[in-house]
Write a structure and sequence with these properties.
Layout (H helix, E strand, L loop, with lengths): L15 H14 L9 H8 L3 H13 L17
Length: 79
């Protein structure tokens, strides 16, 4: 079984990258009623571009610290 690192060992606190990740996570926490958010919504809320949001998601997904789902414009699962 793969052992994942703790988030405190992944999050680059006090760096430009860490500041962007903090904005990403704050944008998710602002709307706790949503279980899933679109890239566009997170990008708009955080002030980051979609590419950077995707990079952050991929980073934490690789570390086993996120859930992702790929849906089309109608909310239908694409996997």
């Amino acid at each position: 079984m793969k052992r994942y690192r703790k988030w405190i060992n992944v999050y680059p606190q006090g760096t430009k990258e860490g500041d962007e990740e903090q904005r990403f996570f704050i944008s998710l926490a602002r709307h706790p009623k949503y279980e899933w958010r679109s890239l566009a919504a997170v990008a708009k809320e955080s002030g980051l571009d979609k590419k950077r949001v995707e990079q952050i998601i991929q980073k934490y997904h690789k570390e086993g610290q996120s859930r992702t789902s790929f849906v089309d414009g109608y909310g239908r699962n694409m996997r």
